[in-house]
Amino acid sequence: MAQRRRGTVRDLRRDNRAVLLRALYFSGPRSRQELAAETGLSQASVSNVTRELIRDGIVAEIGSVDSEVGRPRVLLQVNPEYGYVVGVDVGETRVQVELFDLAMTERAKADFPLDPARHPAPEVVSRILAGIEAVLADGGVPDEAIFGVGIGVPGVVQQRPEVIVDAQTLGWDRVPLERLLCAGTGLPLLIDNGANTMGQAELWFGAGRGTQNIVVGLIGSGVGAAIISQGTADRGSPASAGEWGHTPVVVGGRTCRCGNVGCLEAYVGAEAMLDRYAEAGGTITAADQESALAAMILEAGTPGTVGARIVDETIRYLGAAIGGLINLLNPERVILGGWAGLLLGETYLDAIREAARGHALKHPFATTSIELCTLGPDAVALGAATLPLELFLNGRGG
Which of 2, 59, 115, 292 is deepest in the core (most CB within 10 A)? Predict the structure, then answer.
């Protein structure tokens, strides 16, 4: 939630505006009377601020409801067409760009495939810029209507003094991503780890809604996590918290793409699952990872097959890792997402829960639910789009 603080009259008005905007956005539509009760602001403050928001076109009156006493109460909501945000998901197999209105309704989308074996930064930058141009053109939205572009990337994102991305699995070392993008666009840019953006999307709109302490695991080609504590992502010091995929699960185990051995990603990431499947004698005929993993999971439904053995092993490794998270962090929920996590979880979520039970302490496990991401494979881009939206709701953007 927006932080209340002492300051000038202008600061107070900005804070009041942010409090009302967030209340309307997450709980609306609401009447002025309901807003006063929910926010603790006086009726006079609510009336003054909502009058300004309506005048500016940010909030609209959308009808009325009967009141127990007096006149009907007018309902207010944030105007979804006041502005737009763009979300970008930089994955290992594609760059996905989406345009949203303020209700987070998708208005346009562009996908650009990437070679999973190589991810040169200039090529990724050109895909992002082409995607932004494409969705603005398809959506018929001018640059000046865009609050900003949020970008989710795999790896560690250093925010200051400039945005630098270190992503070993992409082969990126100290890539000045924001500077490279600014050479091709004047739109405001906000960049974060993709697991964090997915975590924020699930917290705001998905399986984490109504909670404060969750862990959201992203399982795609690799593995990452967002740790949400008291409603805020824990980024560590300075920014690498959530590299769940690079916590060890086997001492002296398989070599991970990061160069270390025994990492969770070396057993649970889609690339590692398919490598283990091929090493065990499985046959991969699909040209892309997603189709190949889907075929392996389908084969796993037949007992005694190579696919069944690899999936069973994967569930045991994943269960151990989730049990460790529960023991360490005691979250309200562990939410599994990412395209590979959803493929695996749609069939084997109960088995994953049982595997986690065997590695978690009894009482923390009993208070933690293990769920699937409800926003689907587009959650990273959706969450990235919430980065400029959050600035707007807090009165610092838009």
Answer: 59
Q: Quickly tell me which residue has 């074996």 as its tokens.
A: 117
Q: What are phi and psi of 116, to 5 degrees?
A: -60, -20
Question: Residue 4 pLDDT more than 90?
Answer: no
* CA terminus-to-terminus distance, the chain: 18
Give this prediction's pTM: 0.89
pLDDT in tens, 379-393: 999 999 999 999 999
The 3 state secondary structure assigned to the chain is CCCCCCCCHHHHHHHHHHHHHHHHHHHCCEEHHHHHHHHCCCHHHHHHHHHHHHHCCCEEEEEEECCCCCCCEEEEEECCCCCEEEEEEECCCEEEEEEEECCCCEEEEEEEECCCCCCCHHHHHHHHHHHHHHHHHHHCCCHHHEEEEEEEECCEEECCCCCEEEEHHHCEEEECHHHHHHCCCCCCEEEEEHHHHHHHHHHHHCCCCCCCCEEEEEECCCEEEEEEECCEECCCCCCCCCCHHHCECCCCCCECCCCCECECHHHHCHHHHHHHHHHCCCCCCCCCHHHHHHHHHHHCCCCCCHHHHHHHHHHHHHHHHHHHHHHHHCCCEEEEECHHHHHHHHHHHHHHHHHHHCCCCHHHHHCCEEEECCCHHHHHHHHHHHHHHHHHHCCCCC
Q: CB of 223 within 8 A of CB of 336?
A: no
Residue 211 or residue 115, greater confidence: 211
**Token pair in block for residue 393:** 């709701």
